[in-house]
């Protein structure tokens, strides 16, 4: 099951709304065209995310039928907000253009795949990259090498063709693959980092605790994985 779906606006509607809103005020035709280009871009990336989401759902369903095992616990999908997309472009030192977004921002469309076990993380990666229309663009394995915070996850960026009325376009989709334990940890750590009213010392203190918990969780998940494999050797 994929959570979070968004509806997209139609570019004619956007233009009509803007023209209505800005009659006699200063909105340039050029600005309308930029917004239209952005709407087209978001639709394209949403389609890319849909392609990958469907592939993952199909793989999970096939595993259930053939191996009586669901590697995927659940998935979440998100589109980067226009605001943080623009901030990221500026931070990276690129001018605001659709071409720069396509070339330099890899996480406009993001899918988080939460798996039951650690082996499932790499199984999902392998099965997805095995598909002839999926190309690996970038890979960061924070499970093999956790971040200093203790953060663990496998991050890959893949390119997938999206077939539009004018032909096929390659689209980058960022996929974060992690276990339920890693996901639970990341949510709590994220909460800590975004609390602005905690004293710095306490943040450090809780951060150090969380770092230890990440190691403990990883140990438990490895043991649970081993037990799961042992149980699988029994028939019933
Ligand atoms: P950006 O894409 O600009 O964020 O930089 P990057 O590509 O170097 O980032 P990276 O691939 O390391 O991680 C991007 C995403 O991973 C973030 O938006 C978070 O969702 C997640 N992430 C990375 N590090 C941490 C961490 O220490 N804690 C938590 N909770 N999440 C993290
Ligand atoms: Mg990134």
UniProtKB/TrEMBL annotation:
Q: What is this protein called?
A: GTP pyrophosphokinase family protein
Supply the Gene3D superfamilies for this chain: Beta Polymerase, domain 2, Nucleotidyltransferase
* PANTHER family linked: GTP PYROPHOSPHOKINASE YJBM (PTHR47837), GTP PYROPHOSPHOKINASE YWAC (PTHR47837:SF2)
Q: Which SUPFAM superfamilies match?
A: Nucleotidyltransferase (SSF81301)
The pathway is: Purine metabolism; ppGpp biosynthesis; ppGpp from GTP: step 1/2
Q: Which stretches make up the RelA/SpoT domain?
A: 77-200
User: What InterPro entries does the annotation carry?
Assistant: GTP_Pyrophosphokinase, NT_sf, RelA_SpoT
């Amino acid at each position: 099951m994929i959570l979070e779906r968004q509806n997209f606006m139609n570019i004619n509607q956007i233009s009509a709304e803007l023209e209505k809103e800005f009659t006699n005020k200063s909105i340039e035709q050029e600005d309308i065209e930029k917004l239209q280009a952005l709407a087209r871009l978001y639709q394209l990336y949403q389609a890319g995310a849909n392609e990958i989401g469907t592939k993952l759902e199909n793989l999970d369903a096939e595993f259930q039928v053939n191996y009586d095992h669901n590697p995927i616990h659940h998935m979440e999908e998100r589109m980067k907000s226009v605001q943080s997309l623009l901030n990221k472009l500026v931070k990276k030192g690129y001018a605001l253009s659709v071409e720069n977004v396509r070339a330099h921002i890899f996480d406009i469309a993001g899918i988080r795949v939460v798996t039951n076990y650690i082996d499932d993380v790499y199984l999902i990666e392998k099965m997805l990259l095995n598909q002839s229309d999926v190309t690996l663009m970038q890979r960061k394995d924070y499970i093999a090498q956790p971040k200093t915070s203790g953060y663990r996850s496998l991050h890959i960026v893949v390119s997938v063709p999206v077939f539009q009325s004018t032909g096929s376009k390659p689209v980058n989709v960022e996929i974060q693959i992690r276990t339920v334990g890693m996901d639970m940890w990341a949510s709590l750590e994220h909460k800590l980092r975004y609390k602005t009213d905690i004293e710095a010392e306490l943040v450090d203190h809780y951060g150090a605790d969380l770092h230890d918990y990440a190691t403990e969780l990883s140990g438990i998940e490895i043991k649970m994985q081993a037990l799961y494999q042992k149980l699988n050797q029994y028939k019933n």
